[in-house]
């Protein structure tokens, strides 16, 4: 039984890579939570996903407060990656980082910053909140293609803790 599961998982991984569907190693789709107040920038990111033929769901929040509410209400499920702007109304990106890192349910969230701020204090504050990367919009490439390409590569190889734990426990149950 265990060998069949491993072979099936491996075939699924190969199929996912060749068809362009971006899913983690246990075939659960990775979603992107885009936290961006600027409609033009949000549209550019979404178009870049389409242009790169990435079929993952992209959910958008207009500020940190809306993003946190979406997470708490389970409108986006794990595994997910957050792409976060810093300069937003109501709850800024840095305030969002502070809140999410204090919430035990979301402390392990993978967050990349995509912002106009080149300020060293924003960069340092973001990394102090354990962001996975910091991108300046003006340097991110035409229509954010470079950022989207990086995310595409990133979630093809990353192991997500939530899925790994669930599947490890189901494997143990299957082997009993």
Describe this structure in words.
It comes from Kiloniella laminariae. This is Response regulator. Keywords: Phosphoprotein. InterPro entries: CheY-like_superfamily (IPR011006), Sig_transdc_resp-reg_receiver (IPR001789), TCS_response_regulator (IPR052893). The chain is of the alpha/beta class. The protein has a single domain, classed as 3-Layer(aba) Sandwich (Rossmann fold), CATH 3.40.50. Helix content is 49%, strand content 14%. α3 packs parallel to α4. The protein is globular. The termini are close together. The N terminus and C terminus are likely disordered.
Question: How would you briefly describe this protein structure?
Answer:
This protein has 176 residues and is α/β, with parallel strands linked by helices. Helices cover 49% and strands 14% of the residues.
Task: Record the SSE blueprint.
Layout: H1 2-19, E1 31-35, H2 39-51, E2 58-61, H3 64-72, E3 80-84, H4 93-102, E4 110-115, H5 120-128, E5 133-136, H6 145-157, H7 161-175
Parallel strand pairs: 1-2, 1-3, 3-4, 4-5
Helix pairs in contact: 3-4
